[in-house]
Amino acid sequence: MNGKKLLIALSYIDRKYIEESEQDFSEKKAKCLSAKKLWLIAAVIALMLLLVGCAILYARWSSGLEDWFRPSNTIRQQAEQSGLSVIYPEDQTKDDGLSATDQGITVSVKQMIVDLWRASIVLKIEGFELPDGVRPCFYGERPTLDGNAEFYGSAGYHFYDAIVINESGESVYKNGESVREEHYPMEEFSDSSFMVGRYYLPDGSMELTLSFDFNDTSGANLGKTLNLSFTGFGKEADLGKAITEEEQLVWGSWKLSIPLNGTAQTIEIAPNAPLNEDGMTLLKASIGQMSGQIELQLASYYAGLESNEGLNPSLAGIKMKDGSFVQVAEGGSYYKDRDNLVYVQEYRNFNEIIDLSQVEALAFQSGWEKNAAGKPTIPVYEYIPVS
Description:
By secondary structure, the protein is α+β, with helices and mostly antiparallel strands. It has helices spanning 3-10, 15-26, 35-57, 63-69, 73-82, and strands spanning 85-87, 99-102, 105-114, 118-126, 135-140, 144-145, 152-159, 163-165, 171-173, 181-183, 193-195, 206-214, 225-240, 243-259, 266-269, 273-274, 281-288, 291-297, 314-320, 325-337, 342-349, 359-370, 376-385.
């Protein structure tokens, strides 16, 4: 038991027992606390140590994923128990393939969140010195999964910058301070500014998140080895709107081989439910903790991204049993059977991991309610129950 845990536990003991104890000692009386009170104090301390231990156990998420998903302790626990989230303590990253050091810089795996449709891999970078007012960037080879470089359809990356959105919708640093802004150096854009991130964590490291959308969503990717190869790190400066300039600062070799753990846990439904009068039907749906997909029978050909119009109705979110609503964003889409107009749409929860046992329905938006002035104000949903 360390001192911090003890102090936290002691802070939950009823004040009257502390005062009574102080009085007993000050008056040097032989009176002692009753056995019942002693047992109560001991129970409180034990309970608080247990709770503190649980909080620590499910509070190790990376800063980026923590700020994006804002998971409750229940969701953390479910994500780790299902295998959706895997966290790597520092002593584990010393294993072959999970960490690499060169030029005084160490890259190691910190956390991953993986389901059937996508993966987010969080890496810890130590020892890289970044000039002020610029973003970090990296250089490397195309990632592979068991040697396959075509395992993903799209990919992205993000260095954690400690910028979050507060309750007022303003961009601030995580500690609540206003975000520092600087004007673009290019003269034609000098009236505009960009936000300067804080890329160093309290321990002096940086955090890099790599994201991949899988081509194969059958679950065959789970258990394979993700191979990452970095050749350098550098800086990226904002010159003007959408204009950047990169410069490599460090050259070296950092190779990681990471088992792609994850979860195939989903809710599967096949409601064959009509969605509109034109014959559009929800055939199947796979709902995961972080993402999922729906299979639709269309009434007519839909050009997808080539079309200027979206599907109507379109999947908008997930209704939970407590009445809350989880927004979703469309991912990849394709024809499973073009001749018979069977169309698949993948989606991802906007910024939330869900408890699958609390899912009530899928929400398809078919239009808007309009106010007296004729302006759309309230979305109209068609709910397909999940049972």
